[in-house]
Amino acid sequence: MRDAVLEVENVTMRFGGIVANRNVSFKVKQGDITALIGPNGAGKTTIFNCITGFYRASEGRIVLQSNGRSCNIGDLITKPIVGGSHLVTRAGIARTFQNIRLFKEMSVVENLLIAQHLATTNNLLSGIFKTPRFRRTEVEAIDRAYYWLGQMNLLEDANRLAGQLPYGRQRRLEIARAMCTSPKLICLDEPAAGLNPSETRELSQVIRRLRSDHDLTVLVIEHDMGLVMSIADHIVVLDHGEVISDGTPSEVANDPAVIAAYLGVSEEEVTA
Ligand SMILES: Nc1ncnc2c1ncn2[C@@H]1O[C@H](COP(=O)(O)OP(=O)(O)OP(=O)(O)O)[C@@H](O)[C@H]1O
After folding, report:
1. Hey, where are the domains in the chain?
2. Residue among 14, 19, 22, 44 to mutate when testing ligand 1 (max atoms within 8 A of CB)
3. Which part of the chain is the ABC transporter domain (predicted)?
């Protein structure tokens, strides 16, 4: 049986009086494509923000297994002085956003180089003196950027401004940018939002290839059920901030609690 690369344990997230997530627990297994689904406002993005270190969970633990070590996400972001979500990226979690967040006035390749600067340990002095290590990491960063442009079929766009790319290409560039940090786990927040059917099919191939060719584990929030059912090995369903179902796609699709949540009726009405 494969190990879990990520364990979310009893996570509760409050914003003042609003409880966005309550006692959420699930595991993401190494090499799986896990989908997080649920109606609008179910708490999916909030749990993503806790996993990727943008929020500190009010209660509970999130643990990533990385290079034989257990990394507690809460500890990484609250580490004195140096703590922050960049340490989560360094530990091996990368993400994309529901609303594309590229540097639109920069070129495509510059977007990929900036992402890698966050993940490297070069400091100001090595930059000023252009040490051999600094030069080597710069060359590696450029090589990695072009490698991922190739993988995402974006090589011809390398020197265009990111904001000028068609929407579907911007989505692929976001994935390339996340992959440039060499993650173990990539978290994709609604990657198919705004894509047409042929772009969505291309995206599902890209996600499958990431897993099969790059030893990657994928956690994806998605509303497009066609995409979810075609790529996911494992689905976790949230409703009103809580996990209401967790299993294989067929288990979840036949779960009365899930059908009720999506139809907005009670579970008894579904089973009646
Ligand atoms: N920063 C915040 N401050 C206050 N309330 C918030 C904040 N972020 C989210 N919420 C609330 O938490 C709940 C869960 O929101 P969240 O965005 O996580 O849901 P979601 O499942 O991602 O929704 P969608 O599918 O519409 O993106 C909602 O009631 C939302 O209004």
Report:
1. 1-92+183-271, 102-182
2. 44
3. 6-265
